[in-house]
Amino acid sequence: ARAVVANVNPKLLYEQLLEPAQVPAATRERMAQWRCGSGTFRMNVALSRLPDFRALPGPGPHLSAGIIMAPSLDYMDRAWLDARCDGWSREPIVE
Question: What does the domain layout of the chain look like in residue ranges?
């Protein structure tokens, strides 16, 4: 194929899911050197009911996707920078 679309980490795709002969040498070399990791911790919890926020009470589309709990974009940026530099954030974002 001229293009490959995959919903998987590129290192996993190029090093484990495709045959080495199918991957150009330059790409194999780049993937061998590419460092990847996750800056997230995930914990799934079960709620007895959907949340009811004072700022937007009742049901609605605001409850149909992920909810990010952070006081500001600056806070979220600092959390990301912490995680990138230190491997974890001193003040993490809750989603």
Answer: 8-37, 39-95
Q: What is the DSSP string of 11-69?
A: HHIIIIIS-GGGS-HHHHHHHHH--------------SS----SSS-SSSGGGSS---B
Q: Please work out, in degrees rounded to the nearest 5, the angle formed at the alpha carbon of residue 60 by the alpha carbons of 55 and 66.
A: 80
| 24 strand-pairing partners | none
Q: What is the pLDDT of residues 19-49, one digit of tens each?
A: 999 999 999 999 999 887 766 667 778 889 8
pTM above 0.70, yes or no: no
